[in-house]
Every structure is written in C-alpha cells, then in structure tokens.
Design a protein that fits this description.
- About 15% of the residues lie in helices and about 50% in strands.
- It is of the alpha+beta class.
- It has one domain: Jelly Rolls (Sandwich).
- A 4-stranded antiparallel beta sheet has the order 1-8-3-6, with no helix packed on it. Strands 2-7-4-5 form a 4-stranded antiparallel beta sheet, with no helix packed on it.
- β4 and β5 (about 80-90) form a beta hairpin.
- The longest helix is centred in the N-terminal third of the chain and has 22 residues, at about 1-25.
- The radius of gyration is 19 Å and the shape is elongated.
- Residues about 1-30 have low confidence and may be disordered.
Length: about 130
C-alpha cells in the first residue's frame, strides 16, 4: 500500500515538474518569463512602483491597466537609461519596452495625475520575443 502512495506522489510531482522544465527553455519564444497582477489604490497625485524585475536579452516588458475611472493613469516602464510611458485612458491600455541586453532591470510605475482616488488592476509581464 505504501508503494502505491509513493508512486502516486512521484506521478503527481512529475506532472508539475515536467511542464515547468519544458517552459524554462531559452529557445521558446512564447515563454512568459515573469507575469504579475496587482490591485492598487492610487490617491490623487500618487505614483506607485507596482513591480520590478530583471529581464533577459530580447524580451518585451509590458504594463497593462484596467480601471473603471474616467480619469487617465500614467503608465511608465523604466529600464536602464530609458523610459517608455503612455497615458492610459481606458481598460486594456498598455505600454511596452524591449530589453536590448541581458539582465535589464525594468521598473513598472503607475501615476494618478487626477484629483480623484482611483482603484486599478495592473499587470506587468516580461516575455521572450524572437530577435
């Protein structure tokens, strides 16, 4: 009986490990390196760093926002010596930046430039792309 349970444990473990190893391939252009979602509350004039992470060479970082406010939010990705930004006026608006060297650190910021508090859901990703 004990061997049956240990065999099932190894089977379950292999079901989780095998896909993780397959997804970790550097040659897979569809691989999502990092993906995070955050619910944030921004006070008027407040700027928040929602996340930061290091991305490899030839990766595309993006910051997407969903919010029900009629006021726009400023989305910014800063990486090394450059910054990309956009004014998000509606759900699904986003900004992207491409890493040119390995180990580029991206900082993801959202700024509320309005006079009203805004609640939003933001998603930060770093995904490998073909060169």
């Amino acid at each position: 009986m004990e061997m049956k349970y240990s065999g099932l444990s190894w089977l379950m473990l292999s079901l989780f490990i095998a896909p993780a190893i397959a997804c970790a391939s550097d040659n897979d252009a569809r691989q999502t390196v990092i993906n995070s979602m955050h619910d944030i509350q921004l006070q008027p004039g407040e700027s928040v760093e929602v996340d930061h992470f290091d991305c490899g060479k030839n990766t595309l970082a993006s910051l997407t926002v969903n919010h029900s406010s009629s006021y726009p939010l400023l989305l910014q990705i800063q990486g090394g010596d450059f910054a990309k930004f956009t004014l998000a006026k509606q759900d699904g608006d986003y900004v992207t930046a491409r890493a040119q060297s390995s180990g580029t650190r991206f900082d993801f910021h959202v700024t509320n430039r309005s006079t009203q508090a805004i609640t939003a859901t933001v998603g930060a990703t770093c995904q490998a792309v073909e060169s």
